[in-house]
Structures are given as structure tokens and as C-alpha cells.
Amino acid sequence: MYLVRRVFRVKPGKTKDAADLIKKMSDAYELGGRQSPRVYWSGYTVPGPANLVYMDWIEESLRSPFRSDAELPVGDLGSLYARLSEIQEDTYIEFYEMA
Asked: What sign does the dihedral 12-13-19-22 (CA atoms) show?
């Protein structure tokens, strides 16, 4: 089993705005079958790195998102990603194997 974490580095002062957009994205992925994505951040009201928003979820196995049987998000994510790109500085993905 794997924990998959997508990290979004956003412009200063835009963490909550980005988290709101990313939460809407995670809802669309969950409706499409992804197991309960979580969205979270730190750095303002709690200790931790500032200007980072995380979305993570659990996968039974690591498989290509371009495969023919891939679960697709429900809704138009294009507009959400477009709005996020205006306040996002970087994004990357991390993979962790779970015991």
C-alpha cells in the first residue's frame, strides 16, 4: 500500500486560497473513486513550513494515471487548475510505501 502526496508551493499569503481550490479538486477526485484525499497546510496558525499545501491519498498499488481503466475525477478540473496556476509557484509529488 502507498501514500501518495502532492505538494503545492504557493505565493506568500495565498495558502488558504490554494487550499480551498485544492480541496475542490480532491472532492472531484473522490467522486471519481479516489480514496478520501486529504488537504492540509501549516505555517500560519500552526508550526511548520509556510506556503505549502498538501493533498494526499492511499493507493493499493502504483499505476499509470493514463491507463485505460483509470478512475477519472468528476467535474471540470481545468478551471480549478487554471485558477491555482495563478497562485502556485511549484508542485511535485511524493510516494511512500506503507507497512
From this structure: negative
